[in-house]
Amino acid sequence: MAAVIPNDVYFNTIAELTARLKAKEFKSEDLSRAFAERLVQLGPRYNALALPLPLDARRKGKAIDQDIKLDRWRSPLQGIPYGAKDLLSYKGHLTAWGAKPYAAQVFDYSATVIDKLDAAGAVLTGKLAMVELAGGGGYRFASASATGPGLNPWDTSRWSGGSSSGSAAAVAAGLVTFALGSETSGSIVTPASYCGVTALRPTYGLVSRHGAMALSWTLDKIGPLARSVEDCGRILQVIAGSDGKDPGSAGTSFYYTPQYARPLKELKVGYAAVDFTDRAEESARAAFQAALAAIRETGVTLVETKLPSFPYGPILSTILAAEQASSFEPLITSGRVDELADAAQIAGLKASLELPAKDYLKAIRLRRLIQEEFRKLFTQVDVLLAPGRSGPASKLDQPLDRGGFQPPSGTPVGLQGIVQAGNLAGLPALVLPCGFADNMPVALQVVGAPFSENLLLAIGREFQARTDWHKRRPPEIG
Amino acid sequence: MKFTRRQLAAAVSATVIAQAQTPQPAAAPADDLQAARDRLKANSDLLARQDVPASTEPAFRFQA
User: Fold this and answer.
1) Which of A20, A60, A181, A344 has CB 3.0 to 4.6 Å from A25, enough for a Cys bridge?
2) Cβ distance A89 to A212 under 8 Å?
3) Which of A171, A158, A100, A161 is nearest to A133 (CA)?
4) A69 classed as catalytic
5) CA of B4, closest CA in chain A: separation in Å?
6) Alpha carbon distance A183, A194 (integer Å)
7) What is the pLDDT of residues A328-354, one digit of tens each?
8) What ipTM did this prediction achieve?
9) A182 beta partners
10) Preceding peptide of A163 cis, ω within 30°
């Protein structure tokens, strides 16, 4: 008879779960079964589930139990249940990319990150929902997904964010211990901020994209969404590394060693005060101000900063449009693009085929200048700090292509465009839940120079030692 | 011509405010397509006004 798994495990961190597995409080097979069943039971409540994998999870859990019996520990993720965004292939199983035209798609290989996690002993319990095709065409409504709008576990009348909607919602609701998401321009930062989970967008090239849907080859990144900074570091250590199958691979490994980062009192944190006041939604300002004070208390020096002056949004949109046009040309020209759920996304994809080559080339030349300017900026400050989003998650019926909250005309620009800028320059970003607005989570983002993940994690770890926002749970979740 | 950050912010804000003040009926597919083309054109015009030194090569092999 299967053991009863106590309810509190669903919100345990990786270290806490590992300690309980080592103490033989329960078997890995039972833990895997319990998480897989919970994902099936509660995932649809948030439209977070794309594909349940209960049998695979249980089989893997059983194998892990054999390892544990021999006291063989393969990695810090051994026996830890997780979910993967449905843009990652999993051998022999459906990988729909959140889109109806690909509903029957099956690959005969798994994404490198899934293989790495499998070798590390992590247990895949299901594929998680996403905005169709990661939303590159530009979507108008949260319903732009074959699985319906991502619902926020903190309030199901609000969006869970996109495009890694299911990944963020599943972590927030305790359906998985961690999840893999991806970001081209905000697809990890936004859902993590809206759902109140800790997340890491790695440096471009640090994590292999082999087996992931290609939206934009020069922008796509895969990263973890989890319960804490500590967890993100442990996961990144497993999934990072060179991969000959990914032409964009940086050929670099990552070892989670925040203890060797520079002392926080030596760090200069660039920020713009206006981002935490007039450029933030009014309901979120108190939380952002308190978070800023908590960051200051870690010993770092806050320095008013500006981003280099570039039209980041148009540059990123141009690169994305050109690369997705090439990637999805067969879908668009076949007419099957019309099966997508969101009219604006359909139109955006169709229009992208008409983008002149000169615009793409101009955009990637400008990107080189952006990278150079950011190199200079990071000689003046060590990291950049800004709100993850300017306020809490939007309501489900709110059009997403109308720009959202706008501060009064004449408000200084602050670090506006940091998400697009960070993605264009391939920079890592750490998302830290930092409080609530309208009973919904809000978050900070800390952005660093390429391959500065340990520094970001060191700052985040100190922040989470002083706050407990990352430990909060949505109400009414069993 | 290079835009200042303030000019860019004002241009974006003006567009968004204008859209927000206009009732938004459900767009017909043709309208959506035209809007998408207009966005590409607006981006193209903006990029055309950016000065890039002739020696700046595209980041063909993108490295962070």
Assistant:
1) A20
2) yes
3) A100
4) no
5) 7
6) 15
7) 999 999 999 999 999 999 999 999 999
8) 0.89
9) A222
10) yes
CA distance A2 to chain B (A): 48
Write out the DSSP string of A302-319: EEE-------HHHHHHHH
The pLDDT tens digits for B16-40 are: 333 333 334 455 688 999 999 999 9
Helix (H, G, I), strand (E, B) or coil at A182: strand
Residue A403: band (very low, low, confident or very high) from pLDDT cuts 50, 70, 90: low
Q: Are A348 and B37 in contact (CB under 8 A)?
A: no
Phi, psi of A448 (to 5 degrees): -130, 180
- Cα gap A121→A117, rounded to integer Å: 6
Residue contacts between A and B (CB atoms, under 8 Å): 132
Closest C-alpha to A443, from A223, A305, A295, A257: A295
End-to-end Cα, chain A, rounded Å: 23
All residues of chain B having their beta carbon less than 8 Å from the beta carbon of residue A411 are 9
Half-sphere exposure of A465 (CA within 13 A, CB side): 9
Residues in CB range of A438: below 8 A, 6 or more apart: A283, A392
Using an 8 Å Cβ cutoff, are A305 and A382 in contact? no
* CA dihedral (A127, A132, A138, A143) positive or negative: negative
Residues of A in contact with B63 (CB under 8 A): 204-205, 250, 426
Place of tokens 């830290």: A432
Cβ distance of A366 and B47 shorter than 8 Å: yes
Torsional sign, CA B33, B39, B42, B46 = negative
- Which amino acid would we find at residue A357? A
Question: How far apart (Å, rounded) are the C-alpha atoms in residues A6 and A29?
Answer: 14
Q: How many residues does chain B have?
A: 64
Task: Count CB neighbours of A467 within 10 A.
Answer: 18
* Owner of token pair 């720009």: A403
Indicate if A395 belongs to the active site.
no
Say if CB A174 and CB A41 are below 8 A apart.
Answer: no
Judge if pTM exceeds 0.90: yes
Dihedral (Cα; A286, A291, A297, A299), 10-degree rounding: -140
Token digits for A318? 């141009």
- Residues A217-224 have a mean pLDDT of 97
